[in-house]
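[job 4471] stage=fold_predict status=RUNNING
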Amino acid sequence: MIRALIVDDEPPARGQVREFLIAEPDVLVVGESADGEDALRQILALQPDLLFMDIRMPRLSGLEVLSSSAQARLPYTIFTTAYAHYAVEAFAVEALDYLVKPLERNRFHEAVGRARRYLSRDASLMRRIEPEMLRAFLANLETAGGSARGERLAIKVGRRVRFLDLPLIEYVSADGDYVAIHLRGDEVLRGRESIVELQARLPSARFLRIHRSLIVNLQCIKELRSNKRGGYTLVMASGHRLGVSATYAPAVEALLG
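[job 4471] inference complete, writing structure tokens
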């Protein structure tokens, strides 16, 4: 039997995956989880062979589960998500397949068949998890109080996918349908997504939108200066000066308490 774990923060979505798996006689659902951090604990406890996992979830996203703990050699993963634009990042972290919601039964069956073929090639692929590495990763999560969420960002740059440590990102500026990611040390990467899409993937506790075309890393702000027009200018650690637009000024004022 192929042991499967379903990971999704929405109960109806978990229910649909569970319903589709009833038609797969050699697949046994051994558990369910509602967020990425709990999923890692379930993986350690239940030793599944296959994950059906959403991408955008509380605590750790599905991408962060695979990219942050890749050294633990997690089970084969089929992503089930409402967001088609994460496909590149999903395959960069070695997802087996990528299904876009609403799930289609025949396409779901094809994905399970693909997993079945991978797992049947060599029995040694079953139970791929290395418990000691996964326990160490979970211990780091608990020590950090869950702050590992968003510690890395997958971004497509040209034909490559770069994984960036968030503390290295000083600010992000819009560049049409792309973003320019300004790193400490003056390196600039041009990513293939909009600033709105990128903002949704950045932790709001660390990054702040200050303009329709600017997002800043709060830890990189050196000074906040008011100007004669009643607005603000941020001086970043690198010396770059960034203007705060009137629309986003209240957010900066709230940050100041």
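[job 4471] summary: The mean pLDDT is 83.
[job 4471] exit 0
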